[in-house]
Amino acid sequence: MKKSNLSFLILIGFTFIFFGQHYSATAQDATIKGFVYEKETSEPVIFTNVYLKKTQHGAATDANGFFVISQVPPGNYFLTITSIGYDSISIPITVKANQVLNQKIYLQKASYFIQGVNITAEREEARTETKTSVTKVTPKQLKQIPTVGGQADLAQYLQVLPGVVFTGDQGGQLYIRGGAPIQNKVLLDGMIIYNPFHSIGLFSVFETDILRSADVYTGGFGAEYGGRISSVMDITTREGNKKRLSGKIAASTFGANVLLEGPIVREKKEGDASTSFLISFKNSYLEQTSKSLYKYVDKNGLPFNYNDLYSKISINGQNGSKVNFFGFSFNDQVNNYKSLADFNWKSYGFGSNFVLVPANAPMIMEGIFAFSDYKITLEDQVNLPKTSNINGFNLGLYFTYIEGKNQLKYGFELQGFKTDFNFYNSANRQIAQTENTTEVAAYFKYKISAGKFLIEPSFRAQYYASLSELSPEPRLAVKFLATKKLRIKFATGLYSQNLLDAKSDRDVVNLFYGFLSGPDNLPETFQGEKVDSKLQKSRHAILGFEYDVNDRTTINVEGYYKYFNQLTSINRNKIFEDNSDFLTKPDYLKKDYIIENGDAYGVDFTAKYDYNKLYVWFVYSLGWVKRTDELQTYYPHYDRRHNINILVSYVLNDRMDWQFDIRWNFGSGFAYTKAQGIYEKLNFTDGIYTDYTTSNGQLGVLYAGLNEGRLPYYHRLDFTLKKKWVLGKYSNLEGNISITNVYNRENMFYFDLIKYKRINQLPFMPSVGFSLTF
Predict the structure, then answer these.
(1) Whole-model pTM?
(2) Candidates 2.60.40.1120, 1.10.10.250, 3.40.120.10, 1.10.472.80; CATH matching 3-115
């Protein structure tokens, strides 16, 4: 049976399941829906429990603070909300047959520290959501990891997640369960971000204080996400303070940041319409401070500078509907890195999203329109300059219906982008592309709660207009609630994408992160078989379990397999032009692009302890990544066999004003290509008339087999100590001391062939900082 026919039958099956379940509620049931907000700022309270006291009816709020409790029999109830850090509240309500009751609830921050342990919304969500290979990250968690200058950053937290590998403190990139950075989709308020990390791998483009949450899917994600074959990072930002003008000023030896937010149209009373703003700016001055504070690292300083600007205006209606307008400018610059490379990239974008809550239906409608642009250039001493530019728009419309414990989601998306790329491979053969691309997609997902089973089938149809190709993508997630403490989970699916990476596997300093749209000029065969698709594709399978040892400790184990059945890469082996002069030469020696396949498999083990003032997070990942082209099977440079992270955060006293955080990371060596020698390479630009006795050549390198070597093991200990002073009702001053690489481990970054010496990653680097919140 053809794959397209099988996908169609699965779609029909899912549709019958939906219609068989969707209308099971009786005609007399009522629905309670609404939003939960923080009283002080009117910011949504996310992932918190909302339930009817002494019943089995309840729900958790989403990233908008929205909840729906449906299939409620008529009667009198107490609507109860509990959330750690807030005072619990119970509201008497009466619901009538067929009624849709709307509620807006405001929680007061708790004035004292709760010594006991509450069952958190996170624990409840684990029992009501399939939640396979996804980690929800909140600002509270971000602030429990040691940070440079004491300022929490998403890039540093992502490094402690299961299945995530960073390739370095300087120029490092994010690799998730065998997927390259180009295979990771990053969304900011629904807008596509093409490069979320600065050249020094300690910092992302996202300011922590504006984040509401970040969902990191390391595999097996549902049909609401498409266009990537490995992973997704979905980030949402807060709305500005709707009650008063507030903000934060922070500075350290690495950089500074400023946040300002407040009302434009103030709420006259709780629940009224309002308009608010938020603006955040941060920058690095490490290039300047390092010349005096860290001159032992490099006498010329660390050439990493960046600045990030994000702003947002939110218009909120009385019933919880809202519309946001936002924009960003992210810039990164590296000047004369180790006398090898000059590098910079610039990115900007703008957009709008909305949430619409109909008055008499248990549903929510969301939409997004955004435009973003990313341009990068790299010049080094070995290769000719590289440039890459991608810009375009994405828009979407999404619907969520809730019936009891069941939930239906469906949506439509349209994306258009242009790529402009100029690259030279190691043989100085130019590869250039200017391409316009359009992608159209539709999806649906239905979550079914059937006894001890949670079943979540979904289906996505993604059409790539530039390649005239439709990709049907069925997906499935299942969770079995074996006991109150043990949950077994499984996820699988098909995935596709059009974008491909534009960097070389052999760059000495791998800073260049360019983009190409999928070409149609691919080899006609791969490993003797006809190539019938121009897309990159993968298949995921994940099996694991969650176990609650007690109210304080949770263990999670997941085994995964990703089969990348078709990948497109820049042809590192090209030595001939693709024209009539070389008709007899094989495609893998003359095409600009080659086809590969590969797989990634392994197991991730995590254990979390969270009680009172102590938080402990342990992660061990064991993994393999392989790739196969027409000539060889090899390990990509980010293949790491073992990866361990241990994080401990402890509040030192009852006043909660001293906090101590440590993190230790251990990783086995990355694969790399050994160099056997260097020589002067003449390009014969004048053909047979080139005078090789007087011409100046370029530096040439004789390489050994692709990635046959292994770098030494990596390990590093970081720590942060924080002290907080309360200055007023809304004002706090916090000082911090941080040390990166406490015991000064010499972790190898790369070997400089020109100077013939080893280049290490960051050494012992202390920093001090402060932040003023008002």
Answers:
(1) 0.88
(2) 2.60.40.1120
